[in-house]
Amino acid sequence: MSPLPATFPALVRTRVRAAVRRPARLTAEEAAGRALVLRLASLLLQYPDAELASARAELTTAVESLPATPAAEHLAGFTDWFAAQDPEALERHYVEMFDLRRKSSLYLTYYLHGDTRRRGMALLTLNQRYRAAGWDTGGGELPDHLPVVLEFAALAGPGRGEAPLRQHRRGLELIHRALADADSPYRYLLAALLTLLPPPTEEDRAAVDRLAAEGPPNEEVGLDPYGSYGEGEFAPPGTFVPPMPAPPTRVPPTATSRTEGHR
Q1: What's the predicted TM-score (pTM) here?
Q2: Spatial CA neighbour of 176 closest among 142, 212, 143
Q3: pLDDT tens for residues 138-178?
Q4: Which of 83, 119, 144, 212 supports an S-S bond with 113, CB 3.0-4.6 Å?
């Protein structure tokens, strides 16, 4: 696998300090390739601000360096589009897809628990999982924001690192379906992630159908520590009031560590 371009690490500052075992079924090269897919997906699913837009050439090169896999093919489908767009058009499209539509929101626990007190507990559990691995998210985003979950998966490995992705597989399926229905190129990123997870069961497919039709549970309590979501129906665009945006958490690289930032 080709090394990343020299400028690419400026987007990355590793904060995981705990040692992580690689599953025996993966070679070191396979584990590294899988982690890079997750790291790239984490970056590409962030808000395309000026910093991210300026790194499009480096990100495209990094995707091209991946071993040939279905996930890499999907990532390339996205970066072909991403690299060719006007930066302002990228920002508008991102807001439309992820901030104005509940069915393609990037906050994973919403799909499992809706606006209920169980979601607050799920967010706390995710934070505890990160801390147990020695990882500090920086507090700039909710712990269930998909780019955050992907960063953790890349750093902590296929076992415990990818456990939150497996838990929220149905939510990922719904996001992918919503993006595909909207003909958004961001569907390629979700398709790449889904290739890394076990195939869906019939029960999974039925649950996603129900979730698409009915939405998640709705109980407007229990989320005060993490902000609140506005009123509105599940499906129609333009009715979802997303959480207040967190301040940027990208930080300049230090002499000892680097990380991917999150919107």
Answers
A1: 0.75
A2: 212
A3: 778 899 999 999 999 999 999 899 999 999 999 999 999 99
A4: 119
Q: How far apart are the first and last CA of the chain?
A: 29
Spatial contact of 132 and 139, defined as CB atoms under 8 Å apart: no
Q: What is the full DSSP assignment across 75-140? A: HHHHHHHHHHS-HHHHHHHHIIIIIS-GGG-SBHHHHHH-BSHHHHHHHHHHHHHHHHTT---TTS
Cα separation, 120 vs 250, in Å, equals 25
* Alpha carbons 218 and 231: distance in angstroms, whole number: 10
Q: Do 38 and 154 touch, CB atoms closer than 8 A?
A: yes
Q: H helices of the chain, where?
A: 28-44, 50-54, 56-64, 70-84, 87-94, 108-113, 117-132, 146-156, 163-167, 169-181, 187-195, 202-214
Spatial distance between the Cα atoms of 186 and 105, rounded to a whole number of angstroms: 12
- What are the beta bridge partners of residue 107? 145
Residue 6 CB neighbour total at 10 angstroms: 8
Phi, psi (rounded to 5 degrees) for 70: -55, -40
